[in-house]
Each structure stands twice: as structure tokens, then as C-alpha cells.
Amino acid sequence: MSWTLQAISDELQGQEIEVKQDMLVGRHQDCDLILQSSAISRRHAALNVRDDQLWLTDLNSSNGTFVNDLRIAQETLLAQGDIVQFANLKFALLAENADLVIDENLELPKAASQTESDNHAQKMNEQGMPSLTERAAETTLSREGMPQQVSVPKPAPIPEGIDPHAKAEPTPVPIELPASRVEQEVEQQKNVSVGLMTIIAIIILVVLAFVFFK
After folding, report:
1. Of the options 2.60.200.20, 3.40.30.10, 2.40.30.160, 1.20.1290.10, the CATH number for the domain spanning 2-96
2. How far apart are the first and last CA of the chain?
3. Per its UniProt record, what PROSITE patterns does this chain match (predicted)?
4. Which residues are within 8 A (CB) of 72 and not within 5 positions of it... i.e. 6 or more apart?
5. Which in 28, 30, 84, 113 has the greatest CB count within 10 A?
6. Region of 73 on the Ramachandran plot (φ > 0 left; ψ -120 to 50 alpha; else beta)
């Protein structure tokens, strides 16, 4: 699944932006989608791709981020046909299904293993290998029809302390995914908000202490 943002504002009429991975939207040069407008914040919003779904998050922009004319305050799931607006710039979201359609009448090539087996058998015939009939004629049979003088290889011994019937359980290996630049930006915005609230609380306590002990 992939998505395309098709501009419908007069300033960007006809432009299309393909979204295949996480993207930062804003006016700053390090953004993935740069929108040159004074109404756009330096880091305006973030597009996140997770499990074939597209999410939109506003990064405390000055003029807001909108979905279908509604300003969003938290991460919002987008769908086909949504109108996404960054400040005064509007885009229509188009979803494209990347599934392939297979023609049932198309003749598929042989599997690699079958082709290699056919080639190996052909080489054996070219090198004069005896056929099954010839090899059967060389084998002596008993009265019961069982082949004689046929050696059967012995199985390899099992090392001590190993249970052949025990099932090996795979050991899960934790995989740490690196945080994307979009997630880091969202986390930074949260930390700034928490720090600002802490400073305001300290100032209020100082003012109350001054008034109380005056």
C-alpha cells in the first residue's frame, strides 16, 4: 500500500507527493516535505507509516493541521479521499493498492529444483549411466523376489546426552528498532511542553512564597 498527496490549493495546484515512509512536513530545509509558505511552521506536522496505515500528527504548529476541515490535536489515522490541510495548503489523499494481479493463463517456468533435477538426469544419460531396467537385471533376486547382496548403510551413532525425540525450541532474539526522525521530533515536542509547564509552576510557587512571606 502506498499513498499520494495531491495538491488542490492554488499555490501548489497539480503537484503530487508520494508517501512511502515516515515524513516530516514543514518549512525547514531538513524536512522531507518542504512547503514554502509563511503560514507553515518550521516543523509543522509528521506523517507516519505503520502496518500499511498512514497516520498524521500535528507538531504544535502555529496555524494548525486539519483533516477534512477539522483541526487535529493528536495522532489521526488517514483514509482514502481525506482532505489534509497544513495551515492554508490543502492536499487530497489518494491510496494505491500495490497488490499484483496474476494471470491464470500465464505459463509459469518450472521450479529451479525440478529444472536442476531434469538437467542432472539428462547428464547421467549422456554419460552412459545404466537405465533402471539395466540396473534391475544386474540384481540377484531370491525365491521370494527380494534383492540379494545389497548393502544397506548403517545410521550414524547418536552422541551421548542427546535425546533424538526432543524438540528444539527457538530462542527469541529481541530486536530494537531505531526511533525514526519523526518519532524523535514528536518526543522532543512533548519534552518542551513538559519543561514549559514545569517552569510556569516554579514561577507561580516563587510568587506565592514572596506574597506569603512579605
Report:
1. 2.60.200.20
2. 66
3. FHA_DOMAIN
4. 56, 57, 58, 65, 66
5. 84
6. alpha
